[in-house]
Design a protein that fits this description.
Blueprint lengths: L5 H5 L4 E4 L8 H16 L5 H13 L4 H6 L5 H15 L8 H15 L7 H10 L4 E4 L4 H10 L8 E3 L1 H4 L6 H11 L6 E5 L2 H10 L3 E5 L11 E3 L2 H9 L10
Parallel strand pairs: 1-2, 1-4, 2-3, 4-5, 5-6
Helix pairs in contact: 2-3, 2-6, 3-5, 7-12
Amino acid sequence: MNPPSLAVVLDGVHAVLLDVDDTIVDTQEAMVTAGTEAAAAIWPHRPVGDHRAMAQRYYDDPERWFPRYASGDVPFDAMRSGRLAEVAVAFGLEVPDGAHRSFEDAYAPAFRSSQRLFPDVPGLLAAADGQGLPVALLTNSAHAPTRIKLEALDLVERFDVVVTTDTLGFGKPDPRVYLEACRLLGSEPERVVCIGDSIEWDVLGAQAAGLRAVWLDRAGRGTPEAVARVRGLDEVAVVLERRFGPPLTDR
């Protein structure tokens, strides 16, 4: 099956639902930068290169602690502890007493100062504004770290709706979170397009809930799934600016 064109997916949309991490903000780099500082605080005797490798492993999350948190199976603090313990085992280290406090004390300020907006985001937001489309955020992160990201980027007041895992106690790909975002937007799911970097969470999950979806494939990995794919959000902005579909003043 051939993937739908971007123009078809965006035709007549009434609202845009954006993922946050690695979609509008470079969360991987922020987490690795902050994690490097935190690893150095916990295990200062290790070589500097090890600290960044530890941080990258924490981000990669091979035991999938973060999806377990997003599904509501484990609380936030347990997810953090589990990821840190997995890193320690992988590097043959002990988790010392007070490690979790040391981690947070070093991680939090570094994470805040490392927030970066991808350069194609302002153009997409401007295009949505030009078409009268409300823009919501739907993230599997918690409210507190999401707020940190938006504050650091001066975007707290920019989005009409922000749905986090705290909203319902779980996140994507549970259909209820997409539908809650649509409810808060006041739009029917079939008129909302979800855009994000995760095939599982931002595309297949959204489609299963009745939304439209576009996969943001910044790295150009490709997929066998028949989904609309873009390399950057500027591609979405160009199509929105052509004003597909009927006027949107009747929302």
